[in-house]
Inverse folding.
């Protein structure tokens, strides 16, 4: 059976599901304690203090730790290493940690520096990212090109599905593009909880500094195949990974075609989302008919394991 694990990027996460998993499996809290030592902040305290409140967390280190904790639980319960892993934007670091390419400690240090450089580059002029819903790539690109000039910078940051495309750029340019997309037939748009123009040329200076920072970091060849969603191919070695992580800051992500590639070329028969939410699961439902399960509560762990048993019997 060919399994692919998906790791989402930066976004809002509710502490409740991760806390509930820990009630039965202490490995969740153990992972947070480990991450807290590396990050210098009590991450588990944030989870505990806000589990019963209407609180959502948007923090790169928290996002990474949630994915690593859930993967650690998967390994403890099932122990199956997937054939493929793929991460969306920041989620690539989660995939690379789980594939033993980057140590957990180094990944935290790297993403803290990454976030610092990106925020620094966005200080001069307000930036934002917005999801355009219900409009194809051609129309969104047309809208971006009409707004784009020396004062306004806006471009496609990620092709999530046929009808969900992320744009990124100066705040004023993004707002103008959103308005134009509405005229072209977009049914909705959603502002992302990120105040930077990730995956755009506005991150060029940050990318140059990040390249110098990551140069001497230890990165190994992954123990399983990790897909680069920029080139839609497997990472080959540490140099390949470092170059891609730098290029990621200024390049758009082709998530939709990466999932199609895993389905059609690599014959994936089960997708698992390693997260406390189900953002990528929802995207997959508009891209592929292959079973996709989010491991955000124990009932889905059971479903995933049952699905694996059924598939094995069929084979």
């Amino acid at each position: 059976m060919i399994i692919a694990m998906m790791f989402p990027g930066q976004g809002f996460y509710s502490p409740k599901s991760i806390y509930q998993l820990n009630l039965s499996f202490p490995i969740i809290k153990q992972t947070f304690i480990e991450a807290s030592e590396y990050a210098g902040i009590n991450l588990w305290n944030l989870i505990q203090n806000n589990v019963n409140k209407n609180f959502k967390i948007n923090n790169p280190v928290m996002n990474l730790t949630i994915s690593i904790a859930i993967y650690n639980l998967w390994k403890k319960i099932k122990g199956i290493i997937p054939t493929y892993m793929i991460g969306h934007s920041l989620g690539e670091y989660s995939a690379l940690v789980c594939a033993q390419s980057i140590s957990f400690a180094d990944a935290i240090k790297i993403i803290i520096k990454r976030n610092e450089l990106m925020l620094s580059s966005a200080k001069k002029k307000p930036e934002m990212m917005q999801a355009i819903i219900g409009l194809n790539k051609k129309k969104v690109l047309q809208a971006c090109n009409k707004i784009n000039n020396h004062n306004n910078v806006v471009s496609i940051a990620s092709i999530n599905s046929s009808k969900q495309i992320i744009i990124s750029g100066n705040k004023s340019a993004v707002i103008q593009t959103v308005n134009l997309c509405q005229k072209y037939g977009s049914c909705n748009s959603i502002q992302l909880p990120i105040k930077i123009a990730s995956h755009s040329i506005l991150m060029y200076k940050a990318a140059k500094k990040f390249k110098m920072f990551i140069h001497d970091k230890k990165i190994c060849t992954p123990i399983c195949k990790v897909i680069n969603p920029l080139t839609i191919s497997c990472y080959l070695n540490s140099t390949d990974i470092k170059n891609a992580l730098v290029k990621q800051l200024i390049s758009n992500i082709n998530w939709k075609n990466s999932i199609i590639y895993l389905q059609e070329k690599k014959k994936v028969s089960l997708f698992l989302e390693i997260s406390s939410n189900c953002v990528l699961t929802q995207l997959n439902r508009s891209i592929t008919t292959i079973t996709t399960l989010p491991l955000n509560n124990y009932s889905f762990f059971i479903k995933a394991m049952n699905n694996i048993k059924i598939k094995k019997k069929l084979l």
User: Anything to note?
Assistant: Strands lie at 3-7, 84-87, 127-133, 154-161, 164-170, 188-191, 225-228, 233-234, 270-273, 292-294.
